[in-house]
UniProtKB/TrEMBL annotation:
Organism expressing this protein natively: Halosimplex carlsbadense 2-9-1
Superkingdom as given in the UniProt entry: Archaea
Region Disordered, annotated ranges: 1-36
Ranges of biased composition (kind: Polar residues): 13-24
UniProt protein name: Uncharacterized protein
Organismal lineage: Archaea, Methanobacteriati, Methanobacteriota, Stenosarchaea group, Halobacteria
Amino acid sequence: MTEDNENADVWTDGQTKSRGQQTLPADWRDQPVDPDLEENLGYELIAWEKINVVDDPDQVIFLPDSEEQLRDDAFIVSGESAVCDLADKR
């Protein structure tokens, strides 16, 4: 193992810890376990509509409800198998 690899972060139980470090840095420890997306993380929540593609049952399209975002070409095309409810992944 090289010196660079020895100092690399490793994934442990869904959290990152540096090798040899037993706890998370203070700024991470002070964050809420279940942060509010808008207040704590600064996300602006908007509604998107999920549309199933008729010709391909594993393909879905997500479109924002905002006409302004539609004019800005905001959309997502994804495989149905890649879509999940994050509340189920806790």
